[in-house]
TrEMBL record:
Organismal lineage: Eukaryota, Metazoa, Ecdysozoa, Nematoda, Chromadorea
Protein name: Domain of unknown function DB domain-containing protein
Keyword Signal found: yes
Signal peptide feature range: 1-18
Residues in Domain of unknown function DB domain copies: 60-147
Key word Signal present: yes
Annotated organism of origin: Plectus sambesii
Keywords, sorted A to Z: Signal
Pfam families linked: DB
Length: 199
């Protein structure tokens, strides 16, 4: 029930905001490969080409998320497109917001990107949510469990137990509407957090 209400509020936020320009927290720089990338000195410009990063993101999503959420498994950094992807995935495809943790885990590839999100304004007092949105920039989960079912032996995280983890996103609140409205910034930071030597 809360998910439906949250979706309604999110949809209303984007529809109302679409009629009134939303001030960008940042202007995201275009992808440009360079020797120095993914750090504050170059505004967290991604090191990995978007198509390669999207392939890795999608592969992780296929492992941990239901098919209804696959639409979100891309590093979309254009504000309007990112907002529409989020709305369509939830409203049209039926991706439940309870999948946020697993989705962000795949986006971050288990890296902590809080500093990028902080530097790009997601903890700005203007947002009036403190550092609440920074939890979407680090859902790193380093406690793995071996699934012993012989038919499905693999390491798993997504559906095991995220409860009680420091940055776990088990429940979404009204404050999260602000975070979701800045989905493009969160995706930019997760893309920028990928390094060329990752596997």
């Amino acid at each position: 029930m809360f998910t439906v209400r949250l979706l309604g509020l999110l949809f209303a936020l984007f529809v109302v905001r679409a009629q009134q320009p939303i001030p960008h927290l940042i202007t995201l720089p275009p992808f440009q490969h360079s020797q120095t990338c993914g750090n504050a000195e170059n505004n967290y410009r991604p090191c990995i080409a978007k198509n390669v990063a999207n392939d890795a993101f999608a592969a992780c999503c296929k492992q941990y998320l239901p098919p209804q959420c696959y639409r979100l498994c891309q590093y979309e950094t254009e504000r309007g497109t990112a907002a529409q992807l989020l709305i369509d995935a939830v409203k049209v495809d039926g991706c439940g917001l309870e999948n946020t943790n697993q989705l962000l885990y795949c986006a971050s590839q288990n890296h902590n990107n809080r500093q990028c999100c902080k530097d790009l304004g997601l903890a700005d007092p203007f947002l009036q949510v403190g550092d609440h949105c920074l939890r979407m920039c680090d859902v790193s989960f380093r406690e793995w469990r071996w699934r012993s079912d012989p038919l499905q032996q693999h390491w798993e995280t997504g559906r095991v137990s995220w409860e009680g983890k420091k940055h776990s996103i088990d429940n979404l609140s009204r404050q999260d509407l602000v975070c979701l409205a800045n989905w493009n910034v969160i995706m930019y930071c997760h893309h920028g957090g990928l390094k060329e030597d990752w596997s």
